[in-house]
Design a protein that fits this description.
- By secondary structure, the chain is mostly helical.
- It contains 2 helices and no strands.
- It has helices at about 1-25, 30-55.
- The longest helix is centred in the middle third of the chain and has 27 residues, at about 30-55.
- It is elongated.
- About 5% of the residues are buried.
Length: about 60
Amino acid sequence: MENSKQELIEYINKVGDMSLSVEMTRMPGIQIEILKIALPEIYKGLKDGFVSLTGENPWDNNQ
């Protein structure tokens, strides 16, 4: 469980890091590219970490 918690914390920190990098980048086109690359991985990590830690999957419509 401690591993799951640590992984979730790491992905939460990645959201903060990504926010800073987007904020620091002045060119809107580059901001969009950063988001396109980073968001899918971060979303998956947050989702997997949450499910692993809580045992609940609010994203699954079959539950």
